[in-house]
């Protein structure tokens, strides 16, 4: 859309803002819903598959949808500093919006488990980055306590404004398609985004903006799949570090969304995530981060259950550029090094 002014302006009547809310925006939202015909072909049965590429937001992930609202509301309340725990994307987004809003940003990250691009962003945006010798779940417990005892506003998805902002992803999907899809496939970590999408679909449905509601299909990495097994993972592990989470904060809400929508939680292995990650890039030209590819990996895993002719949306939550190490280490493709700088040498290297 031309003249896009950010999602708070676009969806103002649906959001908890007033004329006196100072809007902190980087013109997030309005991300493309891209058809992925090769994925649809693998599934067959005349299905239509599209990806909501939220990796095209200003800081490269869906977190910007929640952060524009959380930071605007924090500013409205007079906050001088915000804090979050993060596997990387929340920290990058919080840093960008907080700094733009004139606030300090403190971010706690699990030392050694944040993708390079995300760390680079948080640092350059000007966050105060604290790497803890622990995982995301431990970091989240700490920042929750910090926000109770110190003058810092918590901007993890336990902040209700985060989910209010993120529900606009569902609005955009409906505005694009003219109705809700049959299935919404989404990666699940701390379980905020699946909760937010469900809120968005329900609100739009109540307003008569869509005739149906989608089945919410949540996918977790098998090494970090508490919603699938019903058990907390004390040592979550996955190549998809964004969703390396063992005790999701929005566990109950996500479960309620799954049940109300007759959806499912399923897990995908790291190998399946990486396969979908390579497939999206090499067959569809879409470079997302590994956690995001869990939505497509999951869809492919349960493809036998897909109804004929269904419309399916997979949410691609983050940009592939966030995690260059995984791309290079897990590509099937290699570059040819050390070629002499002559036309003849290049032609030979090309096999011509
Ligand atoms: N995909 C990406 C790229 C993420 O960064 C996250 C979460 C998720 C999916 C899962 O979303 O937590 O709402 O279920 N990242 C958080 C972070 C935890 O700190 O950046 P969720």
UniProtKB/TrEMBL annotation:
Binding-site positions, pyridoxal 5'-phosphate: 89, 189-193, 317
Name assigned to this protein: Threonine synthase
Domain Tryptophan synthase beta chain-like PALP span(s) in chain numbering: 24-318
Function: Catalyzes the gamma-elimination of phosphate from L-phosphohomoserine and the beta-addition of water to produce L-threonine.
Listed EC numbers: 4.2.3.1
Cofactor: pyridoxal 5'-phosphate
Keyword line: Amino-acid biosynthesis, Lyase, Pyridoxal phosphate, Threonine biosynthesis
Enzyme class: lyase
InterPro entries noted in UniProt: Cys_Synth/Cystath_Beta-Synth, Ser/Thr_deHydtase_PyrdxlP-BS, Thr_synthase-like, Thr_Synthase_bac/arc, TrpB-like_PALP, TrpB-like_PALP_sf
Family: Belongs to the threonine synthase family.
SUPFAM superfamilies reported for this sequence: Tryptophan synthase beta subunit-like PLP-dependent enzymes
GO annotation (BP), single: threonine biosynthetic process
Parts of the chain that traverse the membrane: none
């Amino acid at each position: 859309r031309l003249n896009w002014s950010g999602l708070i302006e676009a969806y103002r009547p649906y959001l908890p803002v007033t004329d006196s809310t100072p809007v902190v925006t980087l013109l997030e939202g309005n991300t493309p819903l891209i058809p992925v015909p090769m994925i649809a072909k693998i599934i067959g049965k005349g299905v239509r598959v599209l990806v909501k590429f939220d990796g095209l937001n200003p800081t490269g992930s869906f977190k910007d949808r929640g952060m524009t609202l959380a930071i605007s509301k924090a500013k409205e309340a007079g906050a001088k500093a915000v804090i979050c725990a993060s596997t990387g994307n929340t920290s990058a987004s919080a840093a960008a919006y907080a700094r733009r809003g004139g606030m300090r940003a403190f971010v706690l990250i699990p030392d050694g488990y944040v993708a390079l691009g995300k760390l680079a962003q948080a640092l350059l945006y000007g966050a105060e980055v604290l790497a803890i010798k622990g995982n995301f779940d431990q970091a989240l417990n700490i920042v929750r306590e910090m926000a109770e005892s110190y003058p810092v506003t918590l901007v993890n998805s336990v902040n209700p404004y985060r989910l209010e902002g993120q529900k606009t992803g569902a609005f955009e999907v409906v505005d694009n398609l003219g109705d809700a899809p049959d299935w919404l496939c989404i990666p699940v970590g701390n379980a905020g985004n699946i909760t937010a999408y469900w809120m968005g679909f329900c609100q739009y449905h109540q307003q008569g903006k869509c005739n149906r509601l989608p089945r919410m299909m949540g996918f977790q990495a098998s090494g970090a799949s508490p919603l699938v097994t019903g058990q907390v993972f004390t040592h979550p592990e996955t190549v998809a570090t964004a969703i390396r989470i063992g005790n999701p904060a929005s566990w109950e809400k996500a479960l309620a969304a799954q049940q109300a929508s007759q959806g499912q939680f399923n897990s995908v292995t790291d190998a399946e995530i990486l396969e979908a990650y390579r497939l999206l890039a090499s067959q569809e030209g879409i470079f997302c981060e590994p956690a995001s590819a869990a939505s497509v990996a999951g869809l492919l895993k349960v493809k036998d259950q897909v109804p004929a002719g269904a419309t399916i949306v997979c949410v691609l939550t983050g940009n592939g550029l966030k995690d260059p190490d995984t791309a290079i280490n897990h590509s099937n493709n290699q570059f040819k090094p050390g070629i002499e700088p002559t036309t003849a040498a290049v032609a030979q290297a090309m096999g011509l």
